[in-house]
């Protein structure tokens, strides 16, 4: 689903184009002739399920026939009559298994190439760079919601596409690669699977794996974060059960769903000391950047070799990539005798040299070294120098920001909905720059547009593990 910037900016206000009126008899039409699609109740384009037909009302006067009909590839349109009079258009969306289709476009009707009317139609494309996929943990049954580019909310999209599977608790992460969507849960679904490879239009699971492996010490594991590289492998961060004492990163050959027998070098060990942090990994320029103990592990998928960028006596909490192409790293302050003795710090890492530069001290903002506060949900804008992260432990969370252009650090940057706390990875819209932030009290969960706090999306379960705009997985972004 790809639209020009101009189309995106005007489509809400101009879902339909009215008929040209005031014709004269020399045109062969009555001077009162007109044809218009009736406006939608919410002034948004019309959403269709795949293969669905809808009757779209027309306002018609002094028109007996329509001689021009255009539809996006794969769509069809028929004129509906009542007692011989034109009253509507029947529009049918394509089937999902037809690859040569448009997932959005316009239905246009015309008469004598003089009167014209059109209406915007679309169907699901979960890889649309401007739609937000919301991964919901739910400790009993994870779920996936979708906020499409027009602001429509679609809930339980995995469950609807896979009614035979009950998602396992703590759905944790998502990745998009080569027109497939990868969902990763911490706990097994009803069929025993934890990794699902889904169709980008229907969210139907086309392949899956139980990821049934043990840690280097023989412990059972919880799978938590995923990157899919260009070499046909996925890289999965995990921790050991039941106390997440140890953690690491394993690779899996996706063609055979075979999990490697050993961890990626320098990623396994005691969590927050030597093991991989329970945090999103960043894939950029063919390398994986993963928080790991007191360093960032840079993994080269072609060789599975690891280079460590050290942050001595600190705990690395999160990594993300900024719009300037640098990798940003959040660490605790210096730890002595098991306690943090200096303020937390944000660093910038050059992808070219691997060198780290201290950007800002976070003062009294709380960044915990404790393993049960594994990450701080750090996420960067695609379009500006803004970074959001969440401070605190559990119960005193605050949404904080850092601007790497001005070096400004702010805490409590937004007014949380009543009784709710920020939770999970936020995300920035790749074109408007608007931040989408998750909030929860573990019973109620909302996603709020940061610049428009009156607009929120109430989710069916929670809390939010992360919000994803598919642009973050595009070649354009990962090559930056």
What would your notes on this structure say?
The protein has about 475 residues and is mostly beta strands. It is about 5% helix and about 40% strand. It is built from three helices and 41 strands. The strands form ten sheets. Strands 1, 3, 5, 8 and 9 form a five-stranded mixed β-sheet that branches. Strands 17, 18, 19, 20 and 21 form a five-stranded antiparallel β-sheet that branches. Strands 36, 37, 38, 39 and 40 form a five-stranded antiparallel β-sheet that branches. Strand 18 (about 235-240) and strand 19 form a beta hairpin. It is elongated and about 90 Å long.
Write the layout of secondary structure elements.
Elements: H1 5-11, E1 16-17, E2 34-37, E3 46-47, E4 53-61, E5 68-70, E6 76-82, E7 85-92, E8 104-111, E9 115-122, E10 132-136, E11 143-147, E12 153-154, H2 157-161, E13 171-177, E14 180-185, E15 195-198, E16 205-209, E17 221-228, E18 233-240, E19 246-253, E20 258-259, E21 269-270, E22 282-284, E23 287-292, E24 295-300, E25 305-310, E26 316-321, E27 327-331, E28 335-336, E29 339-340, E30 345-349, E31 356-361, E32 379-380, E33 386-391, E34 398-403, E35 408-410, E36 421-422, E37 427-428, E38 435-440, E39 445-449, E40 452-458, E41 464-468, H3 475-478
Parallel strand pairs: 3-9
Antiparallel strand pairs: 1-9, 2-4, 4-7, 5-8, 6-7, 8-9, 10-11, 10-41, 11-12, 13-14, 14-15, 15-16, 17-18, 18-19, 19-20, 19-21, 22-23, 23-24, 24-25, 26-27, 27-30, 28-29, 30-31, 32-33, 33-34, 34-35, 36-38, 37-38, 38-39, 39-40
């Amino acid at each position: 689903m790809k639209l020009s910037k101009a189309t995106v900016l005007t489509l809400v206000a101009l879902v339909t184009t009215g008929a040209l009126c005031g014709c004269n008899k020399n045109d062969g039409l009555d001077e009162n002739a007109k044809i218009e699609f009736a406006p939608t109740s919410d002034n948004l384009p019309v959403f269709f399920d795949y293969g669905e037909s809808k009757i779209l009302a027309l306002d018609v006067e002094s028109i007996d026939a329509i001689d021009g009909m255009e539809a996006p590839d794969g769509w069809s349109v028929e004129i509906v009559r009542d007692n011989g009079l034109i009253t509507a258009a029947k529009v049918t969306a394509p089937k999902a298994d037809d690859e040569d289709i448009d997932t959005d476009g316009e239905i246009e009707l015309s008469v004598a190439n003089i009167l014209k009317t059109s209406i915007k139609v679309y169907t699901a494309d979960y890889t649309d760079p401007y739609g937000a996929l919301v991964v919901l943990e739910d400790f009993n049954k994870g779920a996936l919601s979708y906020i499409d580019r027009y602001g429509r909310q679609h809930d339980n999209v995995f469950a609807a596409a896979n009614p035979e599977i009950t998602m396992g608790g703590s759905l944790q992460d998502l990745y998009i690669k080569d027109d497939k969507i990868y969902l990763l849960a911490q706990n097994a679904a009803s069929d025993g699977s934890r990794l699902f490879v889904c169709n980008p239009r229907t969210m139907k699971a086309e392949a899956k794996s139980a990821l049934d492996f043990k840690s280097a010490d023989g412990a059972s594991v919880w799978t938590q974060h995923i990157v899919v590289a260009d070499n046909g492998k996925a890289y999965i961060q995990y921790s050991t059960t039941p106390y997440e004492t140890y953690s690491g990163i394993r690779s899996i050959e996706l063609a055979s769903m075979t999990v490697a027998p050993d961890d990626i070098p320098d990623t396994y060990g005691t969590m927050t000391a030597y093991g991989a942090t329970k945090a999103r990994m960043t894939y950029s320029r063919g390398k994986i950047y993963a928080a790991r103990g007191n360093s960032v592990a840079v993994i080269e998928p072609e060789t599975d070799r690891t280079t460590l960028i050290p942050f001595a006596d600190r705990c690395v909490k999160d990594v993300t990539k900024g719009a300037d192409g640098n990798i940003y790293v959040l660490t605790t302050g210096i730890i002595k005798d098991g306690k943090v003795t200096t303020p937390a710090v944000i660093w910038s890492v050059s992808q070219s040299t691997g060198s780290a530069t201290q950007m800002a001290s976070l003062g009294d903002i709380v960044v915990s070294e404790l393993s049960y506060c594994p990450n701080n949900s750090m996420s960067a804008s695609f379009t500006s120098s803004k970074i959001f992260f969440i401070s605190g432990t559990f119960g005193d969370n605050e949404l904080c920001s850092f601007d790497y252009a001005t070096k400004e650090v702010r805490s409590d940057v937004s007014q949380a909905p009543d009784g709710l706390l920020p939770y999970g990875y936020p995300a920035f819209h790749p074109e408007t720059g608007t931040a989408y932030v998750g909030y929860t009290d573990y019973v109620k969960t909302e996603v709020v547009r940061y610049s428009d706090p009156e607009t929120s999306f109430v989710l069916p379960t929670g809390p939010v593990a992360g919000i994803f705009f598919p642009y973050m997985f595009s070649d354009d972004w990962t090559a930056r």
